[in-house]
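Entry 12.
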Amino acid sequence: MPNDTPLIKVEGLEACYGKVAALGGISFEVREGQIVTLLGSNGAGKSTTLRAISGLLAPSAGRVFFCGEEITKMPPHEIVKRGLAHLPEGRHIFKDLTVLENLELGSYTLKDNNERKRRLNRVFERFPILSKRMKQAGGTLSGGEQQMLAIGRGLMASPKLLLMDEPSMGIAPLIVRDITNIIKTLHDDGTTILLVEQNAKMALGLADYGYVLDTGSIVLEGVGSELLKDEKVVKAYLGG
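Predicted 3D structure (tokens):
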């Protein structure tokens, strides 16, 4: 790796919803250039982990470091400015706004209009269909196109790290392959990705490293290709 300092380092992270503990003190790291996946059943704490990292949920204990700087108590917009983008589960595009307006919101912290145009052009090069749909309302797009829009909006922040939460959810099986290829391309272009994905086979096929969560704790970790062969993972997540 180009740097010994992890891009993201999570230490003893705990989080609660009311009195219900969602994370029980997890620790892990993501290094520059990696795809790292978090696996687990519904309610295991995967989405909560991403929300705590990006500042959308205040942890009850533990620390999060990004590029060596602690961001645990930092507001979300400041975390975005530092180069961390979060693509939430369910896409959360603005359905009444146009594709262009959705994308421009992804660069709301940017004051340089020329740089914004450059980023828009890069998104349109990556997703030509969005260029064709530029003036359409986001809600009129297909599920796959909406996911492309959500990813494009995240890329407008020019992130060093992309948190992706269930990118294949609600997508037709044929389009899942396209989403997989998009993630591969992002990785090949140098984007570091922390991926939460119910489709364990897809996630582990992409990931350099994986962590398995169960009721808010990490119970297993390893190289992605090795976890694909692990009997516990096969039985629990791959239908073995």
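Annotation: The chain has ten helices and ten strands. Residues 99 and 134 are 5 Å apart (CA to CA).
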